[in-house]
Amino acid sequence: MPDGLVLAIDQGTSSTKCLLAAADGQVVASGSAPVPIRYPRPGWVEQDAIEILDSVLAAAAACLEGIDRSAVVAVGFSTQRESALIWDRHTGAPLGPVLGWQDQRAVGVCDKLRGDEARIRAISGLPLDPMFSAAKLRWLLDGTPGALVGTIDSWLLYALTGSHQIEVGNASRTQLLDVRSQNWSPELLGLFGIPSTALPEITPSQGELGRIGERGGVLAGLPITAVLGDSHAALYAHGSEADDGVKVTYGTGSSVMRLGAPASGDVCLTVAWNDRLAAEGNIRSSGATVAWLASFLSLSPEQIGQMAATAESDGVFLVPGFGGLAAPWWDDTAVGLISGLTLGTRPPQLARAAVESIAHQVADVVDAMGGASRVLADGGASGNDVLMRIQADLLGVPVKRARTSSLSALGAASLAGGLTPAVTYDEFVPSGDATASRSAWRDAVRRALSSKESR
């Protein structure tokens, strides 16, 4: 890759962020644009495909304002995963909403396949769950024959280059990929009823993935040379630190990922990038829990964080089973609950319990992975020092928080341009025994799980 600037576009759940990186990995410009989220019914989470595309173009325009376009040599994408959409193969017009990764409307599709659950997991590396794209795609295709389907990365690649393709790491999150051969599985396509003609072509994470056409506005003419799922991109950005650490991206939900095969069946086998495999556990509600509590109490998320910093939970536990619980429980019928309430419970105790719920869920997944010698933290919520200290205490290992923001975008820039940015860290070390707290949390989770899943 010749010297020049690399544009990274990080298309996330609530916003699109862009950064422009120089050959030495330094960020020279940035831009962002919000993306609306809609909740039309309980358990339904929707976005609009055109609004997502528009946010990409707006964030890129803001990032490139005043920049000599000729200095930009490549574009890399990191994208939200598992979200699914459908569009007309002739006009390219979306034929319905984007079903967000948190969306639960395809539970019925999964329920019909419970007898094939073990086989689905053996091939895809993923437990049967409506979070993954396959069940959503089946729901979208009902009554819409002949359409094209895909995930956010494939939609953006189609809209910007005209080519129907999907990056292999994103493909591994659809539950339709044979994760070991990295091809669409005819058996899984048959089980979910997905025609192969509707699916995009699988491409590697890095290479000549297309040149952006006129629809790309300020991006027109630029080559796309890397695409990654957002969590995968963050892992890539940690570089050699990721070789023996567990990476946690704290966002709307959380992704806990380490390179190599899973230590247990409670976490997923996924493709990190190209032919590199990883173990991953997904948490549905992390920052979303704080946002929910803030809305419920008519406060801001920042106020929740401030209250949590000066309070103890006093035995209150908040289990955020808003749409079921993902790893390591994988119970889509789990319920949300708050336990330990007393007449003395006030908003500060709830705020602390909401923040602690994030750290407890991460600890559950790390335990299922066989433990860790250290945690590498990134994502918006990792900026909360209280959360980082709680996380270190609950796991009993150091937590190294990346000082660099937008690590997913930086990972995409690194792969797209062959950059090796230096990521620096703040370190939080454990300072107490969390045995009693972990035991009480597990009791609360057991109450939230459906009776068939309780353990």
Automatic annotation (TrEMBL):
All residue ranges annotated as the Carbohydrate kinase FGGY C-terminal domain in the record: 247-417
PROSITE patterns for the chain: FGGY_KINASES_2
GO CC list: cytosol
Record GO terms (molecular function): ATP binding; glycerol kinase activity
GO biological process, one term: glycerol catabolic process
Domain Carbohydrate kinase FGGY N-terminal, residue spans: 6-235
Protein name: ATP:glycerol 3-phosphotransferase
